[in-house]
Write a structure and sequence with these properties.
alpha+beta, 514 residues, 13 helices, 60% helix, 12 strands, 7-stranded antiparallel beta sheet, 5-stranded antiparallel beta sheet
Length: 514
């Protein structure tokens, strides 16, 4: 159904709302609430409408069957009035068969006796009244413009009907051949301005029990249609009564009654043809079809006349159908659906706005916490978070966030004090290091200076000792030579030590420079 498709489309669109407005938490929450309610309403509405449609369908079928039965009774009442009026005249007519002049009087009485009778004819077998000629027929009818039998309207008298002898016409032949009263399928009276009629025909039996003639009573189909259509229960519904050959007996369109058969109309439309075949099948049921662009149902059944004592119940082979436009069956149902959907959409919009306002107000602390978190991330650790009176999850979150901010502020203060203390200690250590480095540099310089001062004397000692060794002979004082040698050795030791001290001081100086 169209409204369900629209609701599903709306739900799908709402499912995408997180992507469309994913930065608005209040809108997301409101949309999800509305979506959940919309889905529940859709399911409930679908279930309700399914059962409601079934109930409407059953009620429509019941009403259609009731209307169809009522229409059939309306038609049958007209036929029964015609039959009873004909029967009343018939029994008197049998007693005056030897008086042909009274036959016209009987026809006039029949036309005046029943407003539904448009005309009456009495015809006899050839040569029955030899003094009247081979064929004798009297035919009296109203003007066909007078649909309801105005008593002041003039009667038209004729001695013939149709374009061929009455002995060859079906309204005469059928009762003569069957010997029983019959309703014949519609005939088109071309001599009476093309007015379609159906006739009730009774065989006339002579004194010997031989069928000698026919009493026929005409009912115009347009008159019958007006009577039936005046009693319809729906603005655009209408009844259709079809003869055994598919000719129209009752139809709201006069041109179809006068000129068409139901098969001529259905030949161009397979769906309509199928509906016609269902109506003409002699069964009871309903069929969906489309006519003149309107989706409709036809409810149909065989036309069965009511049981009345003395009435002939020969099956005429007629079929009655009731055409119901689908919009008239489900019109109120669809209107209610539209109203429910409209109310539902308006209600969801109002609910969305209400949820949006409530969630917006409830989420104010979250937005405040978001702003505070932004400022704290920028270094404002002392940003004050206010107290809250809310006892829900948002209030709990705000309290915990306040405690976290306070603890963070305390820890940040301690870190700042520790940083200041370490910075001061670093400055002291830096100054101490500079003094140590300066002392070491002074020591190194002192060692360089001392070394530079010691090297010349030691070198002189070494030189003197070498000179002394060169001038002392072995025969002179061996003890001096030994002493000198010892001095030389000791001097070399001192010189080695001084060189080593110098190397160490130079290496130390290079390390300090690096």
């Amino acid at each position: 159904m169209l409204f369900i498709q629209k609701i599903i489309y709306i739900c799908i669109r709402m499912l995408l709302i997180d992507r469309i407005i994913n930065r608005k938490l209040s809108v997301q929450i409101s949309a999800k609430v509305v979506l959940a309610i919309a889905l529940l309403l859709t399911i409930a509405l679908f279930v309700m409408l399914t059962f409601s449609r079934e109930a409407v369908t059953k009620e429509a079928h019941h009403n259609a069957e009731h209307t169809l039965e009522y229409t059939a009774r309306q038609i049958d009442n007209v036929l029964l009035d015609v039959e009873q009026a004909s029967g009343n005249i018939y029994w008197d007519l049998l007693t005056h068969l030897d008086n042909p002049d009274r036959m016209t009087k009987y026809c006039e009485e029949l036309v005046h006796a029943c407003p539904f009778i448009a005309g009456s004819a009495i015809a006899f077998e050839p040569d029955y009244y030899k003094e009247k000629g081979q064929l004798f027929m009297t035919y009296v009818h109203r003007s066909y413009d007078d649909s309801l039998g105005n008593e002041d309207s003039p009667l038209i008298h004729r001695t013939a009907f149709g374009t061929k002898p009455y002995t060859e016409q079906s309204w005469y032949r059928q009762p003569i051949d069957s010997g029983r009263p019959v309703w014949i399928d519609p005939l088109k009276n071309e001599d009476a301005e093309g007015v379609a009629i159906t006739s009730f025909c009774m065989p006339i039996y002579g004194k010997e029990g031989r069928r000698v003639g026919v009493l026929a009573v005409d009912v115009t189909l347009s008159l019958l249609s007006k009577i039936v259509l005046a009693a319809k229960t729906s603005p655009n519904s209408y009844a259709v009564l079809l003869g055994s050959d598919g000719s129209y007996i009752v139809h709201p369109e006069k041109q179809k009654i006068d000129h068409q058969s139901v098969y001529n109309v259905a030949d161009a439309d397979p769906a309509l043809r199928e509906a016609v075949e269902a109506v003409m099948s002699g069964e009871t049921g309903f069929k969906a079809f489309r006519i003149h662009g309107v989706d409709s149902y036809v409810f149909y059944k065989p036309f069965v006349r009511s049981v009345v004592p003395g009435r002939s119940l020969d099956d005429a082979g007629w079929h009655i159908g009731l055409v119901y436009p689908k919009r008239e069956i489900y019109g109120d149902f669809y209107m209610v659906i539209g109203i429910i959907v409209l109310i539902g959409v308006i209600g969801l919009i109002i609910l969305f706005i209400g949820c949006r306002m409530v969630t917006h107000r409830q989420l104010l602390p979250l937005r405040m916490l978001s702003d505070s978190a932004q400022r704290i991330s920028e270094g404002n650790y002392n940003d004050v978070i206010p107290d809250t009176r809310q006892q829900d999850e948002v209030g709990t979150l705000q309290n915990h966030f306040q405690q976290m901010q306070q603890a963070l502020s305390v820890h940040v203060g301690e870190l700042e004090r520790l940083t200041n203390r370490l910075r001061k200690q670093g400055d002291v250590l830096s100054k101490s290091y500079d003094r140590i480095k300066e002392a070491d540099r002074v020591k190194t310089a002192f060692l360089h200076h001392m070394t530079d001062q010691m090297i010349p004397p030691v070198s002189k000692i070494e030189s003197d000792v070498e000179s002394l060794e060169a001038h002392v002979t072995d025969q002179q004082e061996e003890g001096i030579a030994s002493l000198v040698q010892e001095i030389d050795e000791q001097g070399k030791v001192v010189t080695g030590l001084l060189n080593h001290l110098l190397d160490v001081s130079q290496a130390k100086e290079k390390e300090d420079d690096v």
